[in-house]
Amino acid sequence: MTTQVAEANTPINPVEPFLRMDRMPHIWCPGCGIGTTVNCFARALTSSGYDLDKVAIVSGIGCTGRVAGYLNLDSFHTTHGRAIPFATGLKLANPELKVVVYSGDGDLIAIGGNHLIHAARRNIDITVVCVNNMLYGMTGGQVGPATPNTAIASTAPYGAFEQPFNLPFLADSCGAVYVARWTSYHVRQMTRAMREAMAKPGFSFIEIVAPCPTLYQRRNRLGDGLDAMKYYKQRSTRKDGASTRDVDIDFQGDIVVGKFIDRERPTFLQAMNHRFTERLGSRYTPYPTGLED
Amino acid sequence: MSAATQAGAVKKKKKKYQGRIYVDRERCKGCGFCVEFCPFGALELETDYNAKGYHPPFLAHEDKCNGCDLCGLYCPDFAIFSEKIRVED
Ligand SMILES: Cc1ncc(C[n+]2csc(CCOP(=O)(O)OP(=O)(O)O)c2C)c(N)n1
Ligand code: SF4
Ligand code: SF4
Ligand code: SF4
Ligand SMILES: [Mg+2]
User: Fold this and answer.
1) Fold of the domain spanning A2-266
2) Does B29 contact A26 at a Cβ distance shorter than 8 Å?
3) Rg (CA), chain A
4) Which of A177, A248, B16, B85 is the most buried (most CB within 10 A)?
5) Smallest Cβ distance to B20: which of A1, A28, A30?
6) What is the span of the domain harbouring residue B57?
7) Dihedral sign from CA coordinates of A50, A86, A209, B52
8) Rounded Cα–Cα distance for residues A52 and A221 (Å)
9) Other C-beta atoms within 10 Å of A100: how many?
10) Measured between CA atoms, how close is A197 to chain B, in angstroms?
């Protein structure tokens, strides 16, 4: 039977304990994919069983950047592009924390791109969830570094003509130890990837292709959020272990999804301890890495 | 196999779980994700409107829902979720 939530003694939505209910309803448009990813993140946290007092979430600015402000965790809504440096400081000062960066494509790979590449290179032990709606959503749908060629954006009225970044390839080449891509259609796989990425020591990166019906879908006459979800369902192919070089997304083309990279590499703090111990021997007291059992 | 035994075999198959669906009609923005991606086609959108002018979903086919909660995972507005109920049969 269908029950109205207003009735007494009804169970609450499993995502609600993770939300700041006083801030609901959220600002996201009908059919926006960001909310769906939040459900998955909440379930990933539930099944991981982490002490939620030890989970921190950091966002930059944008529609996706709102996630930190909506989650009922220790959350930080930083300035545009600076989620990763903030998260880096947070993690290095408090290695026992699970630090998750949750932000948009523009925030993470345009203005924040330099931080992304260096955090991956240094293997900072954080998880980055990048919701890729292929443009700057919050500010009105401007072209960005993830906008596919020929797609219309408010600042690309004749279609984008710059080469976009292939996000998994970027993260992989810079040294990320876990790299996956899913779409907002792949809710179970995304949930699992979030759990795996948080459990993985080192820099993990998950791209989630998601609809922005208000700006991307509408300007490109691609219908609404549901049409985008149907497109993801029809045109996604799972290729775990695929070479990230080969996973570009063309405008409305096939989308390769899956776990592409899962490798071992010392984290920044492990490498630091190793080097200092090598040089200084017993004069050096290893710094906690958060990975001691 | 005769038609009679077939029917018998079907009868023996016990349905172990049934779903219960909770909808917060006023939160819904009518995106249709839940209806489209319910693996069993158990949901439909109401013809009625909520206060924001959207058509919220309802469990149109009770027997089809097993409480898998995919609708809950998909809903970007946190407006629907399900509960799995064990049914002794
Ligand atoms: C320093 C600075 N520059 C520009 C902006 C304006 N601004 C706000 S959000 C945004 C882009 C967000 O795009 P993205 O990260 O892809 O998030 P989305 O809204 O698409 O989820 C920009 C450019 C800002 N807030 N601060
Ligand atoms: S503008 Fe786009 S990304 Fe932002 S809330 Fe609306 S649909 Fe989502
Ligand atoms: S719980 Fe599963 S079967 Fe039931 S309505 Fe939701 S998606 Fe469909
Ligand atoms: S997924 Fe949520 S918002 Fe969309 S129609 Fe279903 S209940 Fe409404
Ligand atoms: Mg974006």
Assistant:
1) Rossmann fold (3.40.50)
2) no
3) 19
4) A177
5) A1
6) 23-86
7) positive
8) 42
9) 29
10) 19
Residue type at B15 in one-letter notation: K
**Distance between CA A166 and CA A90 in Å, rounded?**
28
How close is the Cα of A135 to the center of ligand 2, in Å?
10
Q: Rounded to two decimals, what is the model's pTM?
A: 0.94
A30-89 pLDDT per residue, tens: 999 999 999 999 999 999 999 999 999 999 999 999 999 999 999 999 999 999 999 999
Dump pLDDT digits (tens) for A92-137.
999 999 999 999 999 999 999 999 999 999 999 999 999 999 999 9
Would you say residue B42 lies in a domain?
yes
| Cα-based distances in Å from A258 to A47, A133, A198 | 20, 18, 16
Per domain, the residue ranges of chain A are 2-266
Is the ipTM beyond the 0.85 threshold? yes
Measured between beta carbons, which residues in chain A are less than 8 angstroms from residue B27? 24-25
Residues A148 and A135: beta-carbon distance below 8 Å: no
Q: How far apart are CA A130 and CA A115, in angstroms?
A: 14
What total number of domains does chain B contain?
A: 1
Q: What is the CATH number of the domain that holds B79?
A: 3.30.70.20
For ligand 1, pick from A59, A61, A108 the residue to mutate: most ligand atoms within 8 Å of CB: A61
Q: CB–CB of A267/A125 below 8 Å?
A: yes
